[in-house]
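Researcher: Structure for this, please.
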Amino acid sequence: MKRFLGGGLAALFLILSFSNPAAAAAEPAVDKTYVEGSDPQAFLFNPLQVNRVDITMTPTAEAALRQEPRVYQPATIKLTTELGATTVYNVGLHIKGGWGSYRTLDEKTGFKVKVDFSVKGQSIYGIKKFTLNNMVQDTSMLHEATAYRLFRAMGVPAPRIGYANVFFNGISYGLHSNIETYDKKMLARWFPGGTDHLLEGAYGVEVGPDMQVDEGSVTDVRDITEIRDLNNLSGQEWFDKIRTKVDLNEMIMNWAVEHYIGHWDGYTRGWPNNYYMHKAKNGLWTMFPWGTDQTWVQWNELIDDGATMMTRCVNYSPCRELYETALAQIQAKLPSLALPTMVDRIWAKIQPSVVADTRKPYSTSDSLSAMQATKTWMVNRYQELVSHTGNRRSSSITVTYPQTKFAIQGTIKPKLITTGDGALSFKRLEGFDVCEVNPLTGAVLVLNSGVCRIGVQLTQTDTYRGVMTTVKLSIPKLASRVTVSPIAALRSGRTVRITPQVDSSGVVKLKLKSGRCKVSGQTVKALTGSGKCLVTVSVAGDENYLAASKVVSIRLRF
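Model: Predicted structure, token format:
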């Protein structure tokens, strides 16, 4: 195809090849800017813009960098945007890359930049860190931009990508991708509530406490240890319990995208590498991709065994059905992304820089061939996906429960909106002492205050795909009722015992608020024969009820 089709005709063929056969008459709405986000730094991650980064280091700092490539050294960078804006920053910098991608300063080096290394609080349009990747393992120089775009489009947090021509002490180091870093700034766009933990998985490191901690406590890793321990289970036991700790739909989508793009160096392909685990504050664990420079090349099965969690999922039918659903969702999304067209547009922009890059370990003709091969791979992979997913329609579940008017031993009924003909089931996933859930109707019996997490699933049928969602009910401590039976007028010197009806099991206390009375324990004695007494009746809170009080008026008479 790359040999016989001209550029315009080839582009047309590729776009048509990515069209949804079921809706061939409708042209998909395609984002042609590729700039995502409204934050100040978004323009730096525009793959249709090539900026310039000039790095300057003193001889002393350069010598130290050569000696300890992974240690930040002071440097100055001048950022010149394509529009001509120039800014200069004092930063820290070290050499980037692991096995396969690492290059010395005498080759095409990649860099990690820490913007606030020398100047506390300094940022570049809000950015504190960024990566200049040398792309020595991506002959096309296009894989990261397109791969991460698909991840983000499918709801998986992934970096944004721009480009920059990099110069080090006046020497051209060629075209680099500018990769957004998984840091607090980036994560806040995806998780506004904040980050509890961010851990990085290296080569051969499975999910667990051996992962490198990037954000959060480096000593308290009990939460990720729980995930490791649950992965010793399998089948339904694993499926039910893992959903209480991870956003399983998000993880399955991450695995499905990895498999679709042929990300052999990620988490799923049997020997984990290049992934992150993230836990939002008071939330569930999610998984992020990394190291996508060698995607769109290696063909693999769309679904197979892999790393531990992937294997647990595809070997248990209800989870495997969700994986199949994720593949179908990818198929539905791809026409609007028009990734082959994105390849053409980015290539048209970066080609002059590719030609000028004398440090790349491959020729410009190799890059051109790799670009064309990437498009061909995308088209063929999409056709395989269409054949794989079949004709089942998408299911959907919307489940809502009332968030107020809870009552201990009270029942809460869900409102359901479903699409699909599969069997609907409900399962209590968390809060075994908090709630009971009817497996057929989803009605929740409130036992105690706390968190009740419910899994809801529609099974796959010949007509519809399976789908799953989870609902979290936070049962708060409830207001305790304080009810006091009417009290007859009290004569001087007489007493009355007040025994209120309360919900809380806490201690009941009486306290004189005003009037000529004496309170002892739960007994009130009249000291005068006229007027009234006001007595505050209170009950302490317990594990289910808040503290509560009520003012009781007692009339006094002769």
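Researcher: Any notable elements?
Model: The chain is about 25% helix and 30% strand. The longest strand covers residues 86-96.
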